[in-house]
Amino acid sequence: MSFSPVFNRRRFAVGTLAALVAVGSGFVAAPRTADAHEADCPLCQLKVVQDTPTQDNEVALRFGRKRIEYRCVWCALTEAQTDFPKGNLTILAPSEIKGKPVLISRTDGSWSTGPTSAVFLGVNAGHKSCPITYRAFSGQAAFDAYVKKTGGAVKGAKPLTLTQLLATTKSA
Amino acid sequence: MKRTFFAPLVAAGALLAVTAAQGSADAPAPVLPPLPQNLPGWIKNKDVNHLFYQRGRYNFAVYSVKPLAYDLNAVAVGHAMAYEDMVTGKAGRLEGETYRKIDRVLKNPPRLMPAEASLSPTFGRRFGVLEQVFDWTHTLHAQTVDVLASDNLTDAQKDAEIERLYQNYRTTVPYAVTSLPMNMGYLYGQSYSKGFRNNYPKTNGLFWGYHWLQGVMYDALYQRTPEQQRSAYEIIGEQYRKTELYRTNRPFMPMFAEVSPRFAARFPHLANVFDNLHMIHDMVNDILVTPGLTTEQQDAQIERALWLCLEAAHPGEKPGDAREPGGLHDHRFMEGMPGMGLMPGGTKSLMYMTTGGMGWMNMSECHHCSMPLPEGKDSWKASTVTADGWTMRVRCALCARDMSLETKGRAILHLATEDPAKPVIVFSDTEGNLRTDSKNAVFLEAEASHAGCSDWSQAFSNQAAFNAFVAANPEYKRSKPLTFAQWSTREGKKPDTYYRPEGPVENPFASEANQKQGAGKEAAKP
């Protein structure tokens, strides 16, 4: 059922050229290339901040074969309890190490993290900054370094355990 | 009656407004658009003309998908109850008592289609022609759905019968809604627009929920077996009853092609008729709840709104025409989708979808990999994914599968094969486990750049078709056919060609009243 890839590649090139012309004429902003299909966060409706070459930002919830992306770990944890109340799941929360997320698992109703030393930043500063103020870290040292470097809304923040972070989602 | 008898609309500069002569007691009279000078006399007709179905052995076949039939019966009640309140001075109870009454009906739908005239007698007496336009177009809705649900017609016969019904619809009486793509920004940009949405959000949400259902049902039934139709509606009906009826944060009505892009691509004229019908509903609702209008002003504005959307007002005009860019006679359509007029706040190539967090999208491109979709006579070669209230066209089987995995909830995948009559229909459960009843289907998946995904990722109705493709395309001679079980457990890489379109502004609806309120989960922010 292919439909002439050569023709379509030509159309793609023409389309891209048209987009650039449109940009030049002020009709649309430049399309932004990305590595992934992007949808807004299902919870807060704001854009999921994409990973960069040096830092991961996309939070993913794995439920069976589903992989749903969120803007921050708080959004994912909240929906894990409202939209996926039953069954096992895993949340991949970006850590300070590129490619090594903190794994938050719910197995038979019990929550755990991998590594067990993981701690979380959870500062309520609104969803506009939730990818900055809700994050996971492999341990306290990484947390301290992040808080010191970031400052602003997270200045003086204390690390949260998973249980403490979960409690903030339930009280929201 | 001959359509040529009616004088054309003479409303040059329709946006030039005149102040309404008399407003009611304490509300300020809005600035109303001028009335067309040559409205046909019949538009004021109050006599009842009973119009009924064309004969057909398929009539009422919708009852083979009983939950759909029942939901549609309840829609008729919901429409009628709300309208009766609006014309009897009881709009104040729409969001309370009447809403609860309607909701009770929606949750306990009637087993047979009710006679709307008995539920909204005042409305019917006052708006004779409008009621008949509604009835006549609802009949088209009903009969086309019956055709699709019929189990004794082939797909080709169904296509032909739908076309015959449409021709009968537009030529028998002068009540046909235009099949032109209309500029939705213009129609929903009248001085009275959005009042119903902003002030009666729950009842308006129900209306838009009905219209969502009346759109989504087409792709749910189109080119599907009776069993597939029932399975599809099990998912769609749940989405409708649990979510779509109660959305209050849509800035604009759901468009037909948003939810049934395959049917809209095949029958763009019908998609436009139904969108225009739904827009008439919105305009009428807004007029009836606008404060400060006299009964005469309401009647006159409703006659105007109706006339703007009737076929009789657009003689000789064609899809793509733009005699009045941005105005009534702007019939450009969304790029890649002739069955959809230009959307408010968008561009010709980009529309903003609020559902599913989609944002800006181009209907001529795969939403998973951004590569161009087949168009025109080849449009059937696009696959679709239905999930979370939307239906997206995608370019290949992998895009369909992976997009469904990236979306919460159950999903329906319609995978095109080498044969337009033999699509592979796949259902996903909430965990992304896939099933199909296409036992002989096999798949090619030789993942590479998505520039060529319509070649290297394909579904075939059987092994012979796969073999024929490989024989004709020796670059795939090393590829083995994947069974459904093998294919359904795969997951592709992130498409290398994807880009997220960005429109003229981040969100054209951000300042809309119902968006400012926040809705749904956004209210639960930290």
Structure description:
The complex is a heterodimer of chains A (about 170) and B (about 525). By secondary structure, chain A is of the alpha+beta class. Helix content of chain A is about 30%, strand content about 20%. Chain A is built from 5 helices and 8 strands; from the N terminus they run H-E-E-E-H-E-E-E-E-H-E-H-H. Chain A has helices at about 5-25, 75-80, 130-135, 140-150, 160-170, and strands spanning about 30-35, 60-65, 65-70, 90-95, 100-105, 110-115, 120, 135. A 5-stranded antiparallel beta sheet of chain A has the order 3-2-4-5-6. Chain A has a two-stranded antiparallel sheet with strand order 7-8. In chain A, a hairpin with a 2-residue loop joins strand 2 and strand 3 (about 65-70). Chain A is globular and about 35 Å long. With about 525 residues, chain B is α+β, with helices and mostly antiparallel strands. In chain B, about 40% of the residues lie in helices and about 10% in strands. Chain B has 19 helices and 15 strands. Chain B has helices at about 65-85, 95-105, 115-120, 120-125, 130-150, 155-170, 185, 195-200, 200-220, 225-240, 255-260, 260-265, 270-290, 295-310, 395-405, 455, 465-470, 485-490, 515, and strands at about 20, 30, 335, 335-340, 350-355, 360, 385, 390-395, 410-415, 425-430, 435, 440-445, 455-460, 480-485, 500. Chain B has a 5-stranded antiparallel beta sheet, with helices on both faces. In chain B, strands 13-12-14 form a 3-stranded antiparallel beta sheet. In chain B, strand 5 (about 350-355) and strand 6 (about 360) form a beta hairpin. The radius of gyration of chain B is 23 Å and the shape is globular. At the A-B interface, helix 1, strand 1, strand 3 and helix 2 of A face helix 15 and strand 15 of B.
